[in-house]
Amino acid sequence: MKNQYLYFSNRQIVGIVFLLFCVMVLLSLPYFFSKVPAPITVQELPAAESYLNIQTDVSELPDDGPVTKQLHLFAFNPNTIDSIGLMQIGLRPKIIQTLLHYRQKGGRFFKPEDIRKLWGLTTEEANALIPYIHISDVYHAKNANQLDKNLSLIPVELNDADAAAFRNIPGITPLLAYQIVHYRDKLEGFVQPEQLLQVPGISDSLFTAIKPYVFITPQQMPKLNLNTASPFALLHHPFIPEKVAKAILILRQQKGHFQSVNDLQAIPFLSAEQMQQIKQFCSTQ
Asked: pTM, whole model, 2 decimals?
């Protein structure tokens, strides 16, 4: 009886063998259809030193981006203009630093086209600047004796001279002469030579050089009409403080025309000294 439980028929044996074969096939399938991994390629990176090569020289620093703001152009001398003047033009800080560093190292500009050698200055910027660059004969003077010879020229009266007369002054280009006349018209007349420093393109050094050639005759000095003067003329008058000029404009708008300069006494913070100066240089007619 015991041997009957261990007995398998031929059909059962074939079924068992077939079942075992199917199990083995299923277990072996992953080995036949597995993906072959792609070969890994290792690329050599550049030496670390090439990434750590930090340049400290100002002239080697990367440019500080494209030009995004419009330049405010006026006549200037790249050999004498200061950082404030360069910022007024609208040059990028990196260009200003490069120009000043170039001059500190003894570099000089001998013709307007020399501005192109500034590292980082774009072609568009250079083309815009060159027409406004003037390198005066005064700057090229080799010694004081050469400047003394120029002193024999006849000085010009600031409120009477035209652009042609200003062009005779060493260091004054035709463009700068026009700007002096234009600025004088906006001021409604000069009252002191130092007002030339407000003309775009006239630096401290250029003013020192041309000062011997200009003067103001008291009889030629116009008095500013408080009733008709423009806000620009009032705000840029050397003897009218800005705060007082603004008060005059407000008072004129509220009260109308002034009958006399004494009407300004309505301004509470106007000092007696300021009042005296305004009487000397201003009128109501």
From this structure: 0.47
